[in-house]
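Researcher: Please predict.
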Amino acid sequence: MSESTEKPAVTVKPPSPENLWAEISVAVNYLTRFSLPFKDELRSGLIRRSMVWFPVIGALIGFIGAGVDWLTTVMRMPGIITATAAVVAMLFITRALHEEEFANLVDSYGKSVDKDASVGWLKDERSVRYGTLAIILIIILKISAIASLADNALVFQTLIVSASWSRALMVVAAAWLRPIDGDPVAEHFQQPPALRVVLAFGIGVVIAYSALGEDAATVLTAGTLAGLIVALIGANHLRGYSGALLGTLQQVVEVTVLGIVLAIQ
């Protein structure tokens, strides 16, 4: 009598090498200034699945920034210079994508706040945008935090975790919120599959614990709360997610992680 074979309730099919390369290429091309080629035309499902690699690419971005910090330290540069070099390196690698998106969302909020607050001859006379001031503030905070970290080893650990975890939470936000019609980032990535969201979250957690050990729980919790606040505020204002919301979340979470590590070092 032949034994009956039951199919498993859930099957997980690993991506083919071609699809794996395409997924990584999509993530790299969006998050960095590098442009990796595609063999075939991309399908929407593959683009959505590519978000699983966001925390990995983020860790590499943080590693590059930390490497520049280490190199300038070897050159006996003062801490403020090494930290500035690290931030500039990451801005260059990412083409300041998230900073620009952060500025766009801050400008959007600024316009809504000022809509009915203009007084007489001051109306429509602003030459400095809120977004410009926000970028200046966020860059100052990053440089100050990195320059205040105890040593190069901690800089490596912190930049890798902050860049990775902030991008892992981008994936969670994209899955949780509705993509806004007409926004190029939201229409491109849509909503990632649930399994890929869990994997991205898990990758971010593994990277954080590998780098920070027992302090990772505190750091990840604080970063997650900061990301949740941004997502809730942005969702209330935008009724969904856009590239500007994801960029703002990434910047706020990254600065939060830097600040928490600085506080507990």
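Model: Residues 48 and 94 are 20 Å apart (CA to CA).
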